[in-house]
Design goal:
Structural class of chain A: alpha/beta
Number of domains of chain A: 3
Number of domains of chain B: 2
CATH class of the largest domain in chain B: Alpha Beta
CATH superfamily of the largest domain in chain B: ACT domain
Distance between the termini of chain B: 23 Å
Shape of chain A: globular
CATH architecture of the largest domain in chain A: 3-Layer(aba) Sandwich
Strand content of chain B: 35-45%
Strand content of chain A: 15-25%
Number of helices of chain A: 24
CATH class of the largest domain in chain A: Alpha Beta
Helix content of chain A: 25-40%
Radius of gyration of chain A: 24 Å
Largest sheet of chain A: 6 strands, parallel
Order of helices and strands of chain B: EHEEHEEHEEHEE
Helix content of chain B: 25-40%
CATH architecture of the largest domain in chain B: 2-Layer Sandwich
Number of strands of chain B: 9
Largest interface: A-B, 17 and 20 residues
CATH topology of the largest domain in chain B: Alpha-Beta Plaits
Number of strands of chain A: 20
Oligomer: heterodimer
CATH topology of the largest domain in chain A: Rossmann fold
Strand order of the largest sheet of chain A: 2-1-3-4-6-5
């Protein structure tokens, strides 16, 4: 059996039935085996998009998405995709071709040292040097990628290793002696955490991306309801808790909900579940960190104490830890009534900001457009976003009702991620509608994936909030650079309706709220991808806004 | 604060790169690093000395532990471990009396003397970094032509690592 053949068999044994990629000189033996295999191959138009598709697939299916690229530029093109997956702890196995073993280091045609290049942005990387290693490497790659804190794993296979014929063993299990992804949560720490939450006057739950990755939706809701604790989320944790729940305050952060930021800074005890306290979430934290008791749950021990000091650390799978906590509460019949002052304070704060925050005055203001989308979109639909103003507006104005249906490039902030990721998501869950909430600047970066969406029958909806500019940069220039507008004007080019039509997709321009609603309804019935182009006001800012390097209390509010 | 980290890793190509790249990408500092295979050829031991406050060193250790190729990572207590560094030093001999003086200092420090010439003497000293620095200070006046230091290697004393 050849190395390439053993790769296919090993992938199939891991349950892979779809992969995204682009062929080239150094991975042709792999593509020759894909030809004979049952794995469905989705031909991307750029390797970066292939990686984002695998990423979207991985986040939604919660098993590693697979992408292929050739050596050299193929491999360097997936770097952004890998870094995006790493920053957001998404499971992915990226498989690159490499020049033959004896050519490595000779600056051969299409040679790049992808093992060296990718080192800081992968969870692990393999370069098998003989065909016999391939199945073991694949098994290890899937194990590492999907366990503990998930992440991208790279397998770089020299072309001759793909071609070599050998008697190749397929191990049924692998052991990695230096890798211990699962730690049993410490029961005494969980008991301490419960005591702290009960004795706190102003407890809050901060639900991070770890709640979504581990699928701990029911657990987080049980704890919130049993102890009547308000819930804020990080942006990555958005939608880990139903945003229409009476205890929900929404995301905190630079563009967090005002009520969430306010309550977060007033709390005296936080249960942070699967959050890494990123700068975008907590601003400068030192000020109120001093009077805040932090219970930190994370599967990654290195996150404990990395960005903040913790009072109680619970290392382990967030779902497992929360489940133990729920069980203890139920067994001991511990409940807290919702009549304590903090819950009243939450209701007041929420009502105050929801009634008094002025929304942008424009027929197609972001809030109106996104609430219209929410109104017509079924709750179980999957939503991805690009990166920029529209992304933060989605955080503010698009309520996620069904947990775990909202995905965004939150860590690396990769423009162009949302659309290919949506295609990957559609491949993972073909039965539900998938919408990419986009800005035209981001969509520009990977719009050629329309060909994939159309030809591979993965119809998604691209919901472009088009302000004809690089809106977030424009906002920063308006706010911090005295309105010196530099390199932000996209000049209404191209015409996205025509772009869609050129690819055989459906293009709709929606110029009123009614048209937005109707366009989404039309798109939901469509068999092909639909691009909805919505001209919004280029002058609208994302507010509230906490300037970088300042605490969450210093919100710039709409005036 | 100066800390000694003892790291047991898989003895595979590219691990040293991963360790040093981790320090670089996390903006940590490597003061010295020494690497060698252990009694089990599947493992290498790296001894890394680093400068950083308590929080930084704790974070370094956690990030090293997170590396999949790491078998074990320990922070060594200076008092509870033995640590040594080897230095080779070529010292200038300008006048005949220098030779005798250098030899006397070398003897006091229990150096091995290699390669004695009319114009230079090369000595080897295995000691703690402090002792090596003290030696270096004493012979600096003669003129130091070249120095090669290994960086320290260290092991916990018996009993110290079983806690």
């Amino acid at each position: 059996m050849s190395g390439a053949r053993s790769l296919m068999v090993a992938l199939e044994k891991e349950g892979v039935d779809i992969a995204f990629g682009l062929p080239g000189g150094a991975n042709l033996p792999i593509y020759d085996e894909l030809y004979k295999s049952n794995i469905r191959h989705i031909l991307a138009r750029h390797e970066q998009s292939a990686a984002h598709m695998a990423d979207g697939f991985g986040r939604v299916s919660r098993r590693p998405g697979v992408c292929f690229a050739t050596s050299g530029p193929g491999a360097t093109n997936i770097v952004t995709g890998i870094a995006t997956a790493q920053a957001d702890s998404a499971p992915m196995v990226a498989i690159t071709g490499q020049v033959p073993l004896k050519m490595i280091g000779k600056d051969a045609f299409q040679e790049s040292d992808i093992i060296g290049i990718s080192n800081p942005i992968v969870k692990y990387a393999f370069q098998p040097t003989s065909a016999t290693e391939i199945p073991e490497v694949v098994k290890k790659a899937f194990y590492i990628s999907s366990t503990g804190r998930p992440g991208p794993v790279l397998i770089d296979i020299p072309k001759d290793v793909q071609q070599n014929e050998a008697e190749i063993p397929f191990p049924s299990e692998v052991k990695i002696r230096g890798y211990h992804p699962w730690v049993d949560p410490d029961i005494t720490q969980i008991e301490r955490a419960i005591d702290m939450l009960l004795s706190a006057e102003r407890p809050i739950i901060l639900a991070g991306g770890g709640v979504i990755i581990s699928g701990a939706f029911a657990e987080i809701q049980s704890i919130a309801e049993l102890l009547m604790i308000p819930v804020v989320t990080t942006f990555k944790g958005k939608g880990s808790f139903p945003e229409n729940h009476p205890l929900s305050l929404g995301p905190i952060g630079m563009h967090g909900h005002a009520e969430a930021n306010k309550m977060m800074t007033e709390a005296d005890c936080v249960l942070a579940a699967g959050s890494r306290f990123s700068d975008r979430s907590v601003g400068t934290f030192e000020e109120f960190e001093k009077r805040l008791k932090i219970i930190h749950m994370d599967v990654d021990p290195a996150e404990i104490g990395k960005n903040q000091t913790t009072t109680v650390a619970i290392v382990g799978d967030v779902k497992a830890s929360l489940r133990i906590m729920v069980k203890m509460l139920v067994q001991k019949a511990i409940r807290r009534n919702g009549d304590y002052p903090w819950v009243k304070r939450m209701k007041e704060t929420k009502d105050y900001y929801r009634e008094n925050l002025k929304l942008h005055d424009h027929p197609l203001a972001a809030a109106k457009v996104l609430r219209k989308l929410r109104e017509v979109l079924p709750h179980q639909s999957i939503v991805t976003t690009e990166v920029g103003q529209h992304q933060m507006w989605a955080s503010l104005f698009f309520d996620v009702i069904h947990p775990g249906t909202f995905f965004s490039s939150t860590g690396l902030g990769t423009m162009g991620w949302g659309f290919p990721a949506a295609i990957g998501a559609k491949a993972a869950k073909p039965g539900v509608p998938v919408v990419d909430i986009a800005g035209e600047g981001s969509f520009n970066m990977t719009e050629n994936s329309l060909a994939v969406s159309v030809l591979d029958n993965l119809p998604v909806i691209v919901f472009i909030m088009n302000n004809f500019s690089l809106g977030m940069v424009a906002q920063w220039q308006r706010t911090f650079y005295d309105r010196r507008m530099m390199a932000i004007d996209l000049k209404n080019c191209p015409d996205y309706v025509k772009i869609a039509q050129a690819y055989g997709a459906q293009g709709i321009r929606a110029q009123s709220l009614d048209e937005v609603g109707n366009a989404v309804k039309t798109a939901l019935k469509s068999d092909v991808a639909t691009v909805i182009d919505i001209p919004i006001d280029p002058q609208e800012d994302v507010l509230p806004f906490v300037a970088p390097g300042t605490p969450l209390t210093d919100m710039i509010l709409p005036s | 604060m100066w800390s000694i980290i003892s790291l047991l890793v898989e003895n595979k190509p590219g691990i040293l790169f991963k360790v040093t790249n981790l320090f670089r990408s996390r903006n940590f500092n490597i003061d010295s690093i020494s690497v060698g295979v252990t009694e089990n050829p599947e493992f290498s031991r790296m001894t890394i000395t680093t400068l950083g406050d308590e929080k930084q060193v704790t974070q370094i250790i956690k990030q090293l532990d997170k590396m999949i190729d790491t078998i074990e990572v320990k922070r060594l207590d200076e008092k509870m471990s033995v640590y040594r560094e080897l230095v080779l030093m070529k010292i200038k001999v300008s006048k005949p009396s220098d030779s005798m003086e250098i030899m006397n200092i070398a003897k006091a420090f229990e150096c091995e003397v290699h390669d004695v010439r009319k114009t230079s003497i090369m000595v080897e000293l295995t000691a703690t970094p402090d002792r090596i620095n003290a030696f270096e200070d004493l012979v600096r006046g003669f003129g130091i032509i070249d120095v090669a230091r290994t960086g320290i290697c260290a092991l916990a004393r018996g009993g110290a690592d079983e806690s």
